Amino acid sequence: MNKSSTTEKSEKKSQNGDPIKASSGKAAKKTKKDKVKVKDDGLEKKAKTSVKKEKSNESKIKELQDKYLRLSAEFDNYRKRTLREKIELTKLANEEIFIKLLPVMDDFDRAIQSMNETTDCIAMKEGIDLIYGKFKEFIQSNGVKEIDALHKSFDIDYHEAISKIPAPDKKLKGKIVDVVEKGYFLNDKVIRYSKVVIGE
């Protein structure tokens, strides 16, 4: 009885133990393989995603480079066009001024011709005054205005002192007593300072 029970127990152990151990070992191996496979699949997916991202980034970089090149070319064309337009405007502006000056030049030609032919100094003076008045009117119509300096207080923003002399009157001390060369504004901007003599 003891031997048979022992045998039965050992059989049960062999039935309950070895097969169970064998099956649990296979399951464990299978689970490990599955885990490895899952990990490999995950790495592969990550690698594919990474490659896709790299390609996407490269395409974005190329797109940005193309945009930059186009914008650079457009800006360069705009700069050249603007410069060309400015040059054309300057040429046209000068052309307009000289066209308006030509009648004054014609008057000077007639005055010089009459100087050689006439002995009437009064008529000659009147002719020169007429030309001067026409020329003055022309520059004023183009925004050029004379700086009023005589008997005014010296102002470094408008005047350039070239000499000092004793003032002919006490009221003129520190003021401009003579204008050697007239100064001019162009649209309220000084384009030439008045060269003046100051009384002291």
Outline the structure in words:
The protein has 200 residues and is of the alpha+beta class. It contains three helices and six strands. It has helices spanning 2-16, 18-117, 121-141; strands at residues 144-146, 159-165, 176-181, 184-186, 189-192, 194-199. It has a three-stranded antiparallel beta sheet. Strands 2-6-3 form a three-stranded mixed beta sheet, with no helix packed on it. Strand 4 and strand 5 form a beta hairpin. Residues 1-23 have low confidence and may be disordered.
List its salient traits.
three-stranded mixed sheet, alpha+beta, 200 residues
User: Helical content, roughly?
Assistant: 55-70%
> What structural category characterises the helix and strand content?
alpha+beta
Strand content: 5-15%
- Biggest sheet: strand arrangement: 1-4-5
Number of strands: 6
The separation of the N and C termini measures 153 Å
Low-confidence parts? 1-23
**Which overall shape is indicated by the principal axes computed on the Cα atoms?**
elongated
Question: Rounded to an integer, what's the Rg over CA atoms?
Answer: 52 Å
Q: Averaged pLDDT, please?
A: 79
Helix count, DSSP H or I runs of 4 or more residues? 3
Multimeric state: single chain
Order of helices and strands: HHHEEEEEE
The description of the largest β-sheet is: 3 strands, antiparallel
